[in-house]
Amino acid sequence: MLPTFIICGTMRGGTTSLYNYLMTHPEICMSRKKEVHYFDLNYYKGVKWYEKHFEECKNGKVKAIGEASPSYMYFEEVPKRIHEFLPNVKLIFILRNPVNRVYSHYWHEVRHTQENLSFEEAIEKEEERLSQGDIFSKIHYSYKDRGKYIIQIKRFKKYFSNDQMLFLMTEDLEQSPEKVMKKIFEFLKVNTNFTDPSWNIKHNEGKIPRIRKLNKLKVKIPIQLIRGFIHYINLKDYPPMKQQTREYLINYFKPYNKELEKFLGRKLDKWNK
Q1: How far is it, in rounded angstroms, from Cα 15 to Cα 169?
Q2: Cβ-contact 78, 158 below 8 angstroms
Q3: CB-CB contact of 206 with 215 (8 Å)
Q4: Looking at domain 5-265, what is its CATH homologous superfamily?
Q5: How many Cα atoms sit within 13 Å of 240 on the Cβ side?
Q6: CB < 8 Å & 24+ apart, contacts of 28-31
Q7: Could you tell me the pTM of the whole model?
Q8: What is the pLDDT of residues 96-120, one digit of tens each?
Q9: Sequence spans of domains, the chain
Q10: Distance CA 33, CA 15 (A)
């Protein structure tokens, strides 16, 4: 049992919500673990390891099998690997305003104790960090780089046809989940009339620790239940981005967004605010 479709990204774009929404459909089976990371971080483990993540998908009612590893979109070697192994697979990309995605990514790293710099310092030092070439920096500190969607999409275009790829917007999923899910069901050729009330629930929302020291302490606690309780009570909404920083990022992403508009045939004016 192997995937007939893959959610390739983007990170902090709503892939966790989408994964959970798709799990509700009786004709769709998702991998037991959301982020398998086979085609990027675990490729050396081989296909037998990959297949184990879909052992529950042998139900005769299942028409589509999927997984969601949002970093697939970013890592350069992934499109070729997927094509060599699953040439007929369908690919789903969910794209978020890259300025908002950067900020959410930053606070995600803070929450998981991987980032100690201020936001402004982190985006200023990004190129320096990435130039070191280590996988850790590429995973955690690729704030702006991951927002160059058109560059990443072009890598997939080399191997996959237009009818194999579906491009969605995070904002559309948040505002009109039923409409977006129906579009996905049409793409996957499953029952398009299915709906579920859970689609109005957001998953993995962006939060930050109230007390950073407490956030770091929880990592050292061996009992999962206690770690989870500390994690829950220590979260709050993150502060608004500085306007000057937002304007810098809007201008930074403009050339990439313009090219993306042409590719998608869709205006992205709201991303310039």
Answers
A1: 11
A2: no
A3: no
A4: P-loop containing nucleotide triphosphate hydrolases (3.40.50.300)
A5: 4
A6: 28/62, 28/63, 28/64, 28/65, 28/66, 28/188, 28/190, 29/54, 29/56, 29/57, 29/59, 29/62, 29/64, 29/65, 29/66, 30/65, 30/66, 30/67, 30/68, 31/3, 31/66, 31/67, 31/68
A7: 0.88
A8: 999 999 999 999 998 888 999 999 9
A9: 5-265
A10: 13
The residues near 111 (Cβ < 8 Å, ≥ 6 apart) are 207, 208, 209, 215, 235
The Cα 122–Cα 51 span in angstroms is 38
Task: Give me the DSSP letters along 150-183.
Answer: HHHHHHHHTTS-GGGEEEEEHHHHHH-HHHHHHH
Model pLDDT for residues 173-222, shown as the tens digit of each residue:
999 999 999 999 999 999 999 999 989 877 655 555 555 555 555 445 55
CA distances from 218 to 105, 115, 214, 227, 236 (A): 21, 16, 6, 5, 16
Decide: 8 and 72 in contact? Cβ < 8 Å. yes
